[in-house]
Specification:
With 247 residues, the chain is an alpha/beta fold. The protein has one domain (4-243): Acetylglutamate kinase-like (Carbamate kinase, 3-Layer(aba) Sandwich), CATH 3.40.1160.10. Helix content is 39%, strand content 19%. Residues 1-7 have low confidence and may be disordered.
Length: 247
C-alpha cells in the first residue's frame, strides 16, 4: 500500500488548506488585512495553475473567539455560534480576494445563510471542486463545542482530500515553542500518536484523531513565505508531515 504521507510529497490531486482567522490579520491586532488576503489568494492561484483542487477552511479568531468569550461568562454554545458567524465574514473576504486573483469560488456554510453562501452539501462541494472552483467551507461544523481544526479534518475526509495543509507562521512542527526555547528542533516527520502524547499544538485532539482514523496526512507549513503552497503541492520537502509512520 502507498504511504499517504509519501503521496503528499509527490503530487496531490486535492488538498484542504486550513487557515486560522489570525492568519488574515497580518500585523494588525484585529480584523482582516487586505494585503494578506491578496497574498494568500496569489498562493492558491499558483497551486490551481497546476490543476490542484483546493478547498479552504478558515477560522474566526481575528474577529471573535468563542472559547475566550465563554471564559468570561458567556454561554459556550452561544459564544461558539458567534465564532461561526465570524468565520463566514472571513470566508467572504477570502472569496473576494480569490476571485480578484482570477479564480472561481464558492462559499459553503454549515449554518444556512443563503443570501451570502450556499448551504453545505457534501456532493455539491465535490462537484464544485471537480469543476475547478475553490471551495471555502464556513461556519465550522455547524455545531458548538467543535473547533475549526476539527471542521477542517472533517471536511477533508468528506471530500476525499489527499492531505490537510495546516498554515502557520513557523516552518513546521517543533519539539517546543521555537520562540521561547532555543533548543527546540524541527520535526520533519512525526506520527499522529506522537503529536497527541507530546501535547504538540498542531491541531486539537479531535482533529488529530479523525485524521489518524482516516490516514489523512497533515502538512504543517509556513504560510508567510510566498510560494510555499505551490512548492508543497509540487513535492518540495517543506514543513512537517504528520502521518501514521512518522520519521
Amino acid at each position: 500500500m502507498t504511504d499517504p504521507a509519501r503521496a503528499v510529497a509527490t503530487f496531490p490531486h486535492r488538498v484542504l488548506l486550513k487557515l486560522s482567522g489570525e492568519a488574515l490579520m497580518g500585523d494588525r491586532q484585529y480584523g482582516i488585512d487586505p494585503e494578506v488576503v491578496r497574498g494568500i489568494a496569489a498562493q492558491v492561484a499558483a497551486a490551481r495553475r497546476d490543476e490542484i483542487e483546493v478547498a479552504v477552511v478558515v477560522g474566526g479568531g481575528n474577529i471573535f473567539r468563542g472559547v475566550a468569550a465563554s471564559a468570561t461568562g458567556m454561554d459556550r454554545a452561544t459564544a461558539d455560534y458567534m465564532g461561526m458567524l465570524a468565520t463566514i465574514i472571513n470566508a467572504l473576504a477570502l472569496q473576494d480576494g480569490l476571485e480578484k486573483a482570477g479564480l472561481q469560488t464558492r462559499v459553503l456554510s454549515a449554518i444556512e445563510m443563503r443570501a451570502v453562501a450556499e448551504p453545505y452539501i457534501r456532493r455539491r462541494a465535490i462537484r464544485h471542486l471537480e469543476k475547478g472552483r475553490v471551495v471555502i467551507f464556513a461556519a465550522g461544523t455547524g455545531n458548538p463545542f467543535f473547533t475549526t481544526d476539527t471542521a477542517g479534518a472533517l471536511r477533508a475526509v468528506e471530500i476525499g482530500a489527499d492531505a490537510i495543509m495546516k498554515a502557520t507562521k513557523v516552518d513546521g512542527i517543533y519539539s517546543a515553542d521555537p520562540k521561547r526555547d532555543a533548543t527546540a528542533v524541527r520535526l520533519p516527520r512525526i506520527t499522529y500518536r506522537e503529536v497527541l502524547s507530546l501535547g504538540l499544538e498542531v491541531m486539537d485532539g479531535a482533529a488529530i484523531s479523525l485524521c489518524m482514523d482516516n490516514k489523512l496526512p497533515i502538512v504543517v507549513f509556513d504560510l508567510t513565505r510566498p510560494g510555499n503552497i505551490k512548492r508543497i503541492v509540487q513535492g518540495e520537502p517543506l514543513g512537517s508531515i504528520v502521518s501514521a509512520e512518522g520519521a
